[in-house]
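PROTEIN–LIGAND DATA SHEET

This sheet pairs a single protein chain with one bound small molecule, zinc ion, given as SMILES. Inputs appear in the order they were entered. The predicted three-dimensional arrangement of chain and ligand is reported afterwards as a token string under its own label.
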Amino acid sequence: MTPVSEKPPGFFLMAEQPAHAVGLYVPEAAQGVCNRRSLLIAGAGLITGSLLTPQVQAAGTAHHTTGQAITGQTLHAPAIIGKARPALPLVMLDPGHGGKDPGAIGYTGTYEKYVAEAAAIELRQQLLATGRYRVAMTRTSDHFVPLDGRVELAQQHGASLFISMHADALHNAGVRGASVYTHSHGASDSQTADLAKTENSADRYGGPLVQGASPEVQQILASLVTEEARRGSAHMASAVVATFQSRINLLPHPHRHAAFAVLKSAQIPSVLVEMGFMSNRMDEAALRQAGHRAMVAGAMCTAVNRYFTSAGVGLAG
Ligand SMILES: [Zn+2]
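PREDICTION REPORTED AS:
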């Protein structure tokens, strides 16, 4: 349905290998304790410029001559022309489903996975055109990515915002309209409780700054990050609703809470947008149209702009 580009080699380099294995310099004291996310944050401007290209794309950033992985022992920083400036915030787009998982199948046979992918690619183009963000995607072709892997990618790339895009099906075929979901706060189920336990004992939250802190302090820092991510998620959901209101048909009470596994990042503000429902003939017909998807992406792009320009939203991943 939509032309898709092949996944460039090296896309999962950062996700699958420790930094030192691909030639990134890791201070000796930090080896073994410094996670990949903190490395990304520490060297965002340099690292993202070389290793994440072209999967992570940015408009208006300095251009580097190579996107090849570094294989030697010596690391030279790539030349940056012009004034150094902080890395643009990274928005991670997550088209739902893919590969063996088609997602919902519409009344006339449309696969949700294709709609999600096409809409995400459109949104990526619109976000890049603003010159304000770098954009990465959990998938850019029709292949399966496990839910945990999607969250993991966002964390390892140091994303500032995670947006999962769907068009699922409901039992009631009469229900139509867009909606936005955030993860419900607190241990709503045993899986979430287990996750919180693991997260609170991990050193991933603050990177090197947390090391050496007592378990109590680490737990406080972890809960702060979680609260910040929760607030950010709610803020982004509000921005989506406000922006959609005048342009896209919405469900009643369009901001809803649910325990979506893909929204369980404790660190990154995350929302899941249902652009409409495949179970509804009108929604399905609309989402098959590139013009409608561009309108949805346009509304989401405006929501992202609102989110990042609002007070209290930092640029750090
Ligand atoms: Zn879905």
